Amino acid sequence: MRRLRGGRPVTRWLLVATRIALGALFLWAAATKLPDMKGFAQDVANYRIVPALLVPCVAAAVVGVELLAGLALISGFMARPAAVVVAGLLVAFIAFVAQALLRGIDLRCGCFGGDEPASWWTVARDAAMLAAAIVMARDPGQRQPLLEDQRGRT
Fold first, then answer.
1. pLDDT in tens, 21-50
2. What CA–CA distance (Å, rounded) separates 149 from 82?
3. Which terminal Cβ of the chain has fewer Cβ within 10 Å, N or C?
4. What is the CB-side half-sphere exposure of residue 84 using CA atoms within 13 A?
5. What band does 115 get if pLDDT is binned at 50, 70 and 90?
6. Angle at the Cα of 55 from the Cα atoms of 50 and 58, rounded to 5 degrees
């Protein structure tokens, strides 16, 4: 593996870039939903999984988790736990979209706040993001720098 300045392998830089890109996607997804939370809540309801009474809470929770996880991934603070949360969200998103498609439900994805219809392309895109989240969650180099510094001082 070719190393860059400071002895860090190229893969470390690719992992950091992937972490930041994934975080930016989740921040963008949340930011595009915020202006029309009522519309996003309707998108959640259209999947026909969440009881109507819980739809507004679930919609708000999804956006809140996307914001926090996106910030954590971009900043690198608590990146591994954030990647685990993102992976869990993506598994749920994939399952919800797939079940809707298999049941013949014609609906908007609700993914990035637009009018994008749910499709198998949506499932494939989420699967690619899931793969990136799993890589981030499994990467031992995603530890908090503060913890690594304290270990090195013993």
1. 999 999 999 999 999 999 999 999 999 999
2. 21
3. C
4. 6
5. confident
6. 90
Task: Say how many C-beta atoms besides its own lie within 10 A of residue 100's C-beta.
Answer: 19
Domain boundaries, the chain: 27-140
CA nearest to 32, candidates 114, 108, 125, 118: 114
Q: Are 92 and 111 in contact (CB under 8 A)?
A: no
Alpha-carbon distance of 34 to 78, in angstroms, equals 24
Task: Give the bridge partners for 108, in sequence order.
Answer: 117
* Per-residue H/E/C for 44-93: HHHCCCCCHHHHHHHHHHHHHHHHHHHHHHHHCCCHHHHHHHHHHHHHHH
The answer to whether the beta carbons of residues 40 and 110 sit under 8 Å apart is: yes
